[in-house]
Amino acid sequence: MENRPFNDTSYEQYLNEARVMGSRCRKCSALALPPRPICVSCYGNEMEWVELKGKGKLAAFTSIVVAPPFMAKEGFGRNNPYIVGVVELEEGVKAVARINGLDVKHPDRIRVGTPLHADFASKGEGPARQTSLVFKP
Ligand SMILES: [Zn+2]
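A: This is the predicted complex of the input protein with zinc ion.
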């Protein structure tokens, strides 16, 4: 089984391996994404890794026009906004992530409930490689 600690570092390692891994409480089955060492529901500390399918639907979204510096460096901003959304996964847990492939210039045409699936956006090489979870239709 998976022995990695239930923290952001492990979560990011799994993303580098193109896997969406959350934690599940052995007592009450509550899921957490990103994984947490303590159950968000019953505060128990017996967790297990669970691989999520990465399929879900858009629950809420916002269009970001004032980009943080690392996004501005990639050319995002007032004239090139991007979308961050809440995705409700099939397993019942919600993920907050960037959403690609939606009509960012016409946010009024984006529909809550749009089916989405996980994708992995990597930058950098070797040990410096960083992968973030994104979703797309
Ligand atoms: Zn629990």
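The CA atoms of residues 12 and 102 lie 25 Å apart. The chain has a mean pLDDT of 94.
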